[in-house]
Amino acid sequence: MKSKGRSYFLIPYYLWIALFVIAPVLLVVYYSLFDLDGHLTLDNYVNFFTPVYMKMMLNSFWYAILITLFSLLVAYPAAYLLTRTKHKQLWLLLIILPTWINLLLKTYAFIGIFGTFGPVNNVFDLLGIGEQQILFTGFSFVFVSVYIFIPFMILPIFSALDELNLSLVDAARDLGASGWTTFRRVIFPLTISGVRSGCMAVFIPALSLFMITRLIAGNRVITLGTAIEQHFLVTQDWGMGSTVAVFLIVIMALFMILSGSSRKGVRHEK
Amino acid sequence: MRSNKNGISNLYLVLVFAVLYAPIFYLMYYSFNSGGTMHGFEGFTLDYYREVVQDTRLMIIMINTLVIALLSSAIATLIAIIGALAIQRIRSRRAKNTLLSLNNVLIVSPDVIIGASFLILFTIAGIKLGFVSVLLSHVAFSVPIAVLMILPHLQDMSPTLTDAARDLGASRRDVLTKVILPIIKPGIFSGFFMALTYSLDDFAVTFFVTGNGYSTLSVEIYSRARQGVSLSINALSTLIFLFTILLVVGYYFLNRRKQRPAVHIAEPAAEVGVPR
To answer: Record's family (chain B) (predicted)?
Structure first.
């Protein structure tokens, strides 16, 4: 009686899990088994392994890796320097602030900045390089994506660096380690968890971006996300779209498991 | 030597901040351009602001967006309170972790997949795409984040408090409303606030589940931006930026007064920094 009364009010939450977490995944898997005419088939999976989709997948991965790498390269030093500033919480807030502005607006801004008569091309003109086609290229796609993701990379790294025990750094220096060695052997390994969650926060969304590719990269760059959007909303081929989604889910799950186990590994090493 | 090093590092930070804010100020600057383009500033004008204010369709969309955001965050926060209590209640470590993982699925999933799978769900369930589908999906993706904001407060709470209340004869409802809820109130507020910003910001999921005729701000901006440059978007973004700043500053001071350590603002976002 007592336990019944207790669990009664938990229903909305479990209902949410069943309806919006478990059911959607099952539905995607289910739909991936149907072709355009509604026949049960594995054709979608066969299609996925044709060069068209394989190329798209590699392309998508390549861009996601580039985006993650550049975000990390920019964010790590920035996070490090932020922890050394005086009012670091305030500065951090200023890093977070742009993330609260609609992503589409920021992306839209780059249409102007990278445009034929935009400021970047003006600078190029002054430098004598001449006008370049920047918009609708892979470069602009990577740049804008990195721009969007930078704060999400800085935040976890900042937290990790902020928790770092500075006496360890001092100890390394006292023992004669150079600045670079201290960074490589002490600071970086101790903040790797932040780096990892930063990379996770960037890599997976980067695989599935579609609005930036549409607005900034024209249709030059096709990622898994663009493909899903295309299949669902343009060609109405939900089966194939679901198949791509299934692969994206599998990739994501693999990443989660991998990062989870390696985290455990680190803990054991200690 | 040292000051030189400082100079370089300061320069780096200044550069990062400059790049981070340049597009935003770029948008704002050209919202005043009478030339009608995002290059070559011709003269100052407020025409585009007038356009935004007089655009009834846009006003309706803004109201839609706000209604969806407030309503969905309120509902999501309620479900999240229940969820946090549910997770807290479970003793078995394994079951707890499973529930937590299920909770986090929607946070780590790419938006495209959430959008596509919800589209299938609503179509199968026979829910017409529009207000209801958008509201439901915003509730759905806001719940887990609110749970994550509330849960730590619940875990920090000493169990002796509820025990004491029970010993003193409080009913279950009294324990919940007079002991637990007041203690986790800061978590509930930040959960609601996070849900609000998620909802206001969301594009990808909404894009999938809005039918014809119903639109939120993000979806509207996307379709306008695809048609090319229009400075009313700039004017609109300036207004949104100012509104955002007000919101952030308000939240910052509210938070500051409530809990001493200011660290709390940054942490949750860092934990789940998945852009939408």
So the answer is: Belongs to the binding-protein-dependent transport system permease family. CysTW subfamily.
